[in-house]
Amino acid sequence: MKKNCSKGFDHSQFIEPDAFYWPGYFWLWNDCLSKDVLSSQLEDMSSHKAKSVWPLPIPGDFRPTFMVTSMKPAYLSGEYLKLYRYMVEEASRLGMKVWLYDEGGWPSGMVCGRLVRKNPSLARQSLERKEMKLRKGEKVIVPDDCLSAFLYHRKKLLKRLYPGTQEIINTENCIVEIFYAGKISMKVIESKKPVNAAVFYPDLLNPESTQKFIQMTHERLKKAVGDYFGNTIPLIFTDEAGVANPPWTDYLASDFKKKYGYDILDKLPDIFRPDKLDGMQTRVDFFDWWSERFADAFWGQIQKWCQENNILFAGHLGGDGDLGTIGVRMCGFGHPLRILRKLDIPGVDTIWRQIFPGRKRSIIFHWGKSSTKSPTNANHHFPKYASSVAHQEGKPWVITESFAVYGSGLTPAQMKWITDFQYVRGANIMTMGCYQLSTREHFMGGERPFFGPKNSLWPYMEIYHSYTARISYLLCLGKPCIETAVYYPVRDLWAGGPEVNKVASSHDLLVRILLENQCDFDLIDDDILGRSSTMTVNGRLKVGQMSYNTVCVSRTHWMSEKSKEKLLQFIAGGGRVLWVDDSKNNDRPDGVINTGFPDLGKFITGLVQVEPRNKALRVCKRKLTGGNLYFITNESLKETKATIRFAETLPPVQIDPESGICYRPSSASYSCGIWSLSLNLNLAGSAVIFFNSDRLNCAKEFLRTGRALLTIKDGWVCKRIRSYEIGNYDLEVNELDEKEVPIKLGDWRKQFGEDFSGDAEYSVDFFCKKDIAEKARLLNLGKVNYACRVFLNDKDLGRRIWQPFSFPVEGIIKPGRNKLRVIVTNTLANQYVYTNKLDRYPVRMIGPYHRIAASFEKESLPSGLYGPVKITG
C-alpha cells in the first residue's frame, strides 16, 4: 500500500484531516470481549475524535505471575477472530482506522509464548559465561555442549580449551572461563505452572522463528480481516522486538568466520570485557554481525510480507530512549538506524517520562521484588533515529507511542509539550497509552494514564486530538528542509573501551548545541555512507532523498574506511565537514574543519535567527508546493518572547492547529529579504508559520492580551459538581449537589481535601464600568490546574486545556453587573495518591506499573483556579 502525502497545503484537509492522522489509543483488551463493549467503546473514542485505534490483546497467559488479566475469548481462537472482524467492521462504519497490533502482549515475536512452546528448538539463545576457580592438581572436564573455554593464571590467558577435552591444573590460582549458549530448558517449557510468556521468547536471529511468527499471527489476521488491508487497516505494528544482548544463534560461528575471516570462538572473552582496549575489533564485528542478521531475519521478512499484502509496516524498538546513545550496548537491537530502515513507518517509544518538561533526574522504579534507579526527563534526541531514516528513505511518516506509564497526573499542557518535543524532531503520527477495555477491580490500577469516560479530563481530550491531528497533517506535507547531517558513532559504541562514555557524551552535546541554535539535522552512519548511491553532487552529500551541505562529526575512532573516503570526496566536491571535540584524532580526512564546542556556533546556521538568542526554541522547516512551512516550539518551562527572523520573501500566514484558523500576523515586518515576527510562547507554546504564494482563507487575527482593565479578586464562591473516584469495584463518576462556599483563588485542596478529583464550579458576580466594558477584549484566567470551561453571562466561551487560558469577551461583557462561571477540572492524581482501595490487590494482580505511576502522580496534586483573573483591553 502506498498512501500519498500532498506536497501542498489544503485548508479543508487541515481543518479535518484524514482519520489516518488523528491520534488513537492503545486499546488494552484486558477483560471479556463482547460486541456491545467493542461497539460502545469505539463510538466513545470516535465521538471524542480519537479516530484511530490500536487493539492490544492482553491474554491471561501473557503475564500470569505479575499482571493478571481476564481476556476472553482465547487469543487468536476462532471466536476471538470473529469478534476482531466485528470490531474492524464497526471501526470502518465509524470512519476510523484500525492499526493492527501483531502480538498478544509485548514484545512482538512470541505469539504470547506459543511459538516456542510448539517449537522448542527456536527458543531464544544468549551468549553466557561462567567461571570456575581451580586448585593445583584438579582436573577440568570441558562440557561437550559449551562453545569454548579458556584457562587463565592470575588473569593471564594460558590457552583455549575445547569442548569434550580434559585439563589437569598444574599451578595454583587458575581460573577456567566457560562460554555456552543459554536456552530455556524443556522442563520449563513442559511445566504446567503459570509462566510469563516472555520466558518463551524465540530466537529472532533465526529466520525460521520469523516465518513461524508470520504464519501464527499475520496470516491468521489476514484471513480474518485481510480484505480491510490498505483501507480501514493501513498498517501492522511491531512492538519492541529484540534479542538477548549478547545473543547467540545456530551457525553464528561459521557465518561469522565467513564474513570476518576469524573464529569468534577464539574471541568470546572480548565480548564480556566491553571497557577494555583489547577486543574492541571483536566487539565491533560481533555487534555488526548480529544487528545485521536481526534486521534481515526478523524486520526484513515482515516488511516483505507487508509489501506483498498491501499493508504498511510500522513499529519501534525497545529501549532506544532509555539510555540514549549508550542504549545500543545494553538493549537488544544493536543498531537503531539499521533496524528502523526496515520499516515503512519507523517509530519511537516514549514511556516512563523519558521525555518530560523539567530537568533530568532519577527515580526509583520498583519492579516485582527488585528496584532500580532510572533517569526520567532525560529529553534525549532519540526521535531523530526514526525521523532521519524516514527523511532519507523518502518515507513520509514517523510514529511515536507516547504517555504509557506517565501516571494519571499527566496534564494536557505536559502532553502538548511532549508531543511538540517529538514533532519538531520529525515525528508526525501519534498513538497514545492507553484506553482500557475494563477498569474494574485490580484493573483500576493498570497501565496509567488511561483515558475514557472515567477520566476527568476525557471531555477535554477532543482539543488535544484536534491539535495533534492537524499538526500531524502539516508535518507530513512536502519535504523536510535540513542542511546538516550528524555522524552517529555506532561502531565506537560497539567497540566500547575506556572512552566510550566520552564518545557518547560528545555526540549528545553536539546534537544539543545544534538544536539550541535552531539548526535541524539528520543522523547518518557507516551503513548509509557506505552505499554507492550516497555521493557528492554540486557540493552536497546526497543521501537517499536528502542532501546536506554540512556534516558534523564528534569523537570517533572507529569510523569505517569507506565512510572516511566518502567524506573526503564530499570535502573535495565543495562540502564542509566539522570535526568537533576530537583534536587528538590523527586519522581524520584531510580538509575537515577542526573545532571545539565553544566555537561550534560560528560554523552553523540555524533555520531562523532568534533575537535575543534563545536556547529553548526548536525549529523544523518543510518545503511545500508554493512555500515553506516552519514549526517553532518552546521547550522552556517559562513563557518566552523573541523576534524570529526568516530568510523568506513570500508573505507569512500563521496557522493555528488548535482552532484550525489561519491569519496574517500583525507583528510581521519585511526588510531586505527578511521577514521578522515577534512571538510570545507560553509553556508548551508553539507556532506554525507558512510563507506562501497562495491566497489562503485567512480569518481575523487572535486577540492578544493587552493592558489589564479590571482584576477580579474577591467575591468568588465554589462548589464541587462532579467527582471521579476509585470505588470498591470500579472507577466511579458521581454527580454532586453541593452548596457554594466562599473561596480564595489558589489550590482548592484547602477547601475540598487532598483526594478530590473532578470538576468544581467557580462563580463570581462582578461590576464593570461602562468605559471598561466598551474597551474589554479578553478574559484571562491566569493559572489554571488543569483544564476549564467558561461561561460569562450564560454565554459559553469555550474550553481551554493549556496556556493561555484566555477568552474573547467583546460584546459579551456588559456595563453593570456580570456573572462569570468557571468549571475547573483536575487530574485523577489526587485519587490515586490518597486512596487505599488498591492496597487490597497483590502486586501480581495489579501489575508492575502501579507504583511507578504513583511516584509520578504526586507531582500533579495542586488543583484549581489560581488567577489572577483579569479583563484586558
Q: What does this protein structure show overall?
A:
The chain is of the alpha+beta class. The protein has five domains: 11-120 and 188-480, Alpha-Beta Barrel (TIM Barrel), CATH 3.20.20; 125-182; 484-602, Class I glutamine amidotransferase (GATase) domain (Rossmann fold, 3-Layer(aba) Sandwich); 609-692, Immunoglobulin-like; 708-872, Sandwich (Jelly Rolls), CATH 2.60.120. Helix 13 runs parallel beside helix 14 (461-474). The chain is globular and about 105 Å long. It starts with 10 loop residues before the first helix and ends with a strand.
Total number of helices: 23
Low-confidence stretches: none
Structural class: alpha+beta
Average predicted local confidence, pLDDT: 95
Corresponding CATH superfamily of the largest domain: Glycosidases
Tertiary shape: globular
Architecture of the largest domain, CATH level 2? Alpha-Beta Barrel
Percentage of residues assigned to helices: 25-40%
Major beta sheet, strand line-up: 1-2-3-10-12-13-16-17
The top-level CATH class of the largest domain is: Alpha Beta
Distance between the termini: 53 Å
Report Rg. 29 Å
CATH topology of the largest domain: TIM Barrel
SS elements, strand count: 48
Secondary structure layout plus pairing:
Elements (H helix, E strand, L loop, with lengths): L10 H5 L8 E6 L5 H13 L4 E6 L20 H16 L3 E5 L12 H5 L6 E10 L4 E3 L6 E6 L2 E6 L4 E3 L5 E9 L3 H5 L16 H19 L9 E5 L7 E2 L3 H9 L7 H4 L8 H29 L3 E5 L10 H4 L5 H5 L4 E7 L9 E7 L2 E7 L6 H11 L5 E6 L7 H12 L5 E8 L24 H14 L4 E2 L3 E4 L2 H6 L4 H17 L4 E4 L1 H4 L5 E3 L2 E4 L2 E3 L1 E4 L7 H12 L3 E5 L12 E3 L13 E3 L5 E8 L2 E8 L5 E7 L5 E5 L4 E3 L5 E3 L2 E8 L4 E7 L15 E4 L5 E10 L4 E5 L5 E2 L6 H4 L5 E11 L1 H6 L2 E3 L2 E3 L1 E6 L2 E6 L5 E3 L7 E10 L3 H6 L8 H4 L2 H9 L6 E4 L2 E3 L1
Parallel strand pairs: 1-2, 1-17, 2-3, 3-10, 10-12, 12-13, 13-16, 16-17, 19-20, 19-24, 24-25, 25-26
Antiparallel strand pairs: 4-9, 4-11, 5-8, 6-7, 6-9, 14-15, 18-28, 21-22, 22-23, 27-30, 28-29, 29-35, 30-34, 31-32, 31-35, 33-34, 36-48, 37-38, 37-39, 37-40, 40-46, 41-45, 41-48, 42-47, 43-44, 43-46
